[in-house]
Amino acid sequence: MLSRTADHLYWMARLMERAENMARMLDTSHRISLMPKSGEISPDSGWLSLLANLGLDEVYYAKYGKISSEAMLDFMIFAPENPSSIHSCLRGARENAHAVRGTLTSEVWEAANATWLAMRQQNPATLLERGPGEFFEWVKYRSHLSRGAALGTMMQDEGLRFMRLGTFLERADNTARILDTKFRTLPADTELAAPAPDYYPWSALLHSVSAFEIYRKVYRDLISPQRVAELLVLRPDMPRSLSRCMKEVYTNLQALANRSSAETERRAGELEAELRFARIEQLVADSLPAWLDQFLDRIADLGGRIADDFLVPVSR
Questions:
Q1: Phi and psi angles of residue 229, each rounded to the nearest 5 degrees, phi first
Q2: DSSP classification of residue 64
Q3: Were both Cys, which of 15, 18, 19, 151 would link to 92 (CB 3.0–4.6 Å)?
Q4: Which helix (H) or strand (E) holds 151?
């Protein structure tokens, strides 16, 4: 497969996944911002952590000056100067799909094109009137539709594998950022293995990664930060966990291997094996936020290596 074709397929899937993930993060942060806070916790702490985690502090403050829920939603959903806004991601996914229109099935193309056309009709006034929750559900639904169309209609060849590679690399990055944002805002004296005193923020986090029902099925107990981390980091049967994502990344890299990708494959396999055999008690004891920072660096490294080995190596 030509590098440019692979590049468009990879980024089409990755940007659609990024739009979904942004909707999930914003939904969680918005819900938490509406909940009562103790005097020790700033009502804007969740938004501040999200901005810092995405590395978008300077761009945001240059446009808005101060933190507010309305400004954050506008910036993360509509702002064209934010490359990770939902608007930018859906536009990019459609542009990449258009570039390889002949490679896609009609169902996959229509999913990407119709999603972008509907996104163009959205505006901040309508969002505030209806409430952002409905919009976030729509974004997630369109991402599910796009992914389902690809799995149900695309030939099981290299093209689909590049799409899967982009999807799971982006998903791993997102899950790590959601966890990092939450664990960095915890008070220093939090007992991670004990039931969480603030039940609703933790349940909102689980809902944001479609894991609330799964948590109840696996643990059948009160929500504790350590178990949430175990579910989203180490459980290979949890669809959005880091372990599951890295297994998919490694499997697809093995299938796509070429003469220059051995080191990329080795690094992905090393990270997948580390997650497969790790213990959550050790990760928490050693500082989970520090480990997640290292994980995000390794994901970024893999993304760069994949671009060099298979795609068109341009900055995005």
A1: -65, -45
A2: H
A3: 15
A4: helix 132-153
Largest CA distance in the chain: 58
Residue 46, token pair as written in the block: 């969740």
Look-up: residue for tokens 């972008």? 116
Distance of CA 73 to the CA centre of its chain: 17
Q: Which residues contact 99 (CB under 8 A, 6 or more apart)?
A: 8
Q: Please, how many CA atoms are within 13 Å of residue 175, restricted to the half-sphere of its CB?
A: 30
Determine the pLDDT at residue 36.
62
* pLDDT given for residue 41 in this prediction: 53
CB 71 within 8 A of CB 127: no
Burial (CB < 10 A; 0-12, 13-18, 19+), residue 129, is exposed
The answer to whether 22 and 89 are in contact (CB under 8 A) is yes
Which pair of structure tokens corresponds to residue 9? 């397929």
The better pLDDT of the pair 54, 102 is held by 102
Among 168, 306, 180, residue whose Cα is nearest residue 242: 168
Structure tokens at 24: 């999930």
* Rounded Cα–Cα distance for residues 161 and 233 (Å): 23
